[in-house]
């Protein structure tokens, strides 16, 4: 939410909190550089294929556990081992949640080109109700945060900008959400990302 003092931390729904400008420029630069390495093959960034035969418009690389709709595994579709989730990234997730016991073991790194979006869905392939941490870098987007019942209204549209944190847990952990559009040209090239949007979600798998 915008006030004359800038954007404020807002609880969008119980357990769902938007914290603007949470990442420093240094942290964003480090994440962009790391995402470039994670995106490289093997087990690199690709468009996820859906069982329906469709292909997601975002490109994704997974760390820790590989997500294939609708389950997690230790290897990708072509049999490559999934890249590890580095401790420093799990530490960042722990700091975002503010709970010393929080231990994310999955990162999904999504890249949105200017046409990419993500339909309303729940993050429900994890066997844990621990909060999901979402970090955004690059172009702004319209993030639609809905309800836990279905993909329809009520929802709240939130503009996520570069450096913003969004955490959803508690009663909002299984709320439907999606990205209706990105806003091309709104990112700061100083992050190292010249075009497009990166989103990193950190999750607890509940698997071993
Ligand atoms: O890009 C975003 O902000 C949301 C990504 C998301 O919902 C997901 O990866 O499940
Ligand atoms: Fe999601």
Automatic annotation (TrEMBL):
Residues that bind Fe cation: 121, 123, 177
Keyword Metal-binding: yes
Entry EC no(s): 1.14.11.33
Domain Fe2OG dioxygenase: 103-206
Cofactor names: Fe(2+)
GO MF annotations in UniProt: broad specificity oxidative DNA demethylase activity; ferrous iron binding; methyltransferase activity; oxidative RNA demethylase activity
Residues where substrate binds: 65, 70-72, 125, 151
GO cellular component, one term: cytoplasm
Bound cofactor: record note: Binds 1 Fe(2+) ion per subunit.
GO annotation terms (biological process): methylation; oxidative RNA demethylation
PROSITE patterns, A to Z: FE2OG_OXY
Binding sites annotated in the UniProt record for 2-oxoglutarate: 110-112, 197-203
Alphabetically ordered keywords of this record: Dioxygenase, Iron, Metal-binding, Methyltransferase, Oxidoreductase, Transferase
Entry annotated with the keyword Methyltransferase: yes
Pfam families assigned: 2OG-FeII_Oxy_2
Protein name: Alkylated DNA repair protein (DNA oxidative demethylase)
Organism: Kutzneria kofuensis
């Amino acid at each position: 939410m915008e006030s004359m003092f800038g954007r404020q931390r807002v609880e969008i729904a119980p357990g769902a909190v938007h914290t603007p400008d949470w990442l420093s420029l240094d942290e964003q630069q480090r994440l962009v550089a790391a995402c470039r390495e994670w995106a490289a093959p093997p087990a690199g960034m690709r468009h996820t294929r859906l069982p329906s035969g469709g292909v997601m418009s975002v490109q994704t690389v997974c760390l820790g556990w590989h997500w294939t709709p609708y389950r997690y595994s230790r290897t990708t579709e072509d049999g490559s081992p999934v890249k590890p989730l580095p401790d420093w990234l799990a530490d960042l997730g722990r700091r975002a949640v503010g709970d010393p016991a929080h231990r994310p073991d999955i990162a999904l790194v999504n890249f949105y080109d200017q046409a990419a979006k993500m339909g309303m869905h729940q993050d429900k392939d994890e066997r844990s109700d621990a909060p999901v941490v979402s970090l955004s870098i690059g172009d702004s987007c319209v993030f639609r945060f809905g309800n836990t019942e279905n993909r329809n209204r009520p929802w709240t549209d939130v503009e996520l900008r570069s450096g913003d944190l969004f955490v959803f847990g508690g009663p909002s952990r299984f709320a439907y959400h999606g990205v209706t559009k990105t806003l091309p040209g709104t990112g700061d090239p100083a992050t190292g990302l010249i075009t497009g949007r990166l989103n990193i979600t950190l999750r607890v798998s509940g698997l071993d």
